[in-house]
Amino acid sequence: MQENPFGKGHAGGRVHFKPYGGANAGCTWQTAGGIIGLGGGLVAILFGTVSTALSWLTASPAYVSHLRAFGTALFFFSIPLLIVGAHCLDLSDRRRALSSRAATPGRDSKPEKKTADEWHAETSTGGGRS
Predict the structure, then answer these.
(1) Is pTM beyond 0.70 here?
(2) Per-residue pLDDT reduced to its tens digit, 35-78
(3) CA 44 to CA 97: how far, in whole Å?
(4) Residue 109 per-residue DSSP state
(5) Helix, strand and coil in the chain, % to nearest 5
(6) Which of 26, 36, 63, 75 makes a 20 to 30 Å CA pair with 93?
(7) DSSP 8-state assignment for residue 74
(8) At what angle do helices 29-57 and 61-103 cross, to 10 degrees?
(9) How many angstroms from the chain centroid is the CA of residue 14?
(10) Distance (Å, whole) CA 37 – CA 19
């Protein structure tokens, strides 16, 4: 059998994707809220811009007031959507970080706190202060 020229464990040009599993597998409400919030905020900004631009270009006064009101409302709705979306993604990241820390044993172990005298005894060179 011929040795793999790309090294051990390399698939020789083929790409193998491993499905992500674990505590964060699948779509949670935090990720769904983030996607809907940020996506909805961006879509609201886009349609608000188009609606406002159409109100400037439309000659009929009957449509101008409705288009301007619709565009303004979409601009106002985009701000809370973006805030909620960003908050949901922050929650999702925090949840993912906490679950990865819990999966790694010993990672959260904190060093023991030392008193000032213990620290001074360890760091002094003997010829310094007493």
Answers:
(1) no
(2) 999 999 999 999 999 999 998 888 788 888 888 999 999 999 99
(3) 31
(4) P
(5) 60, 0, 40
(6) 75
(7) H
(8) 160
(9) 30
(10) 26
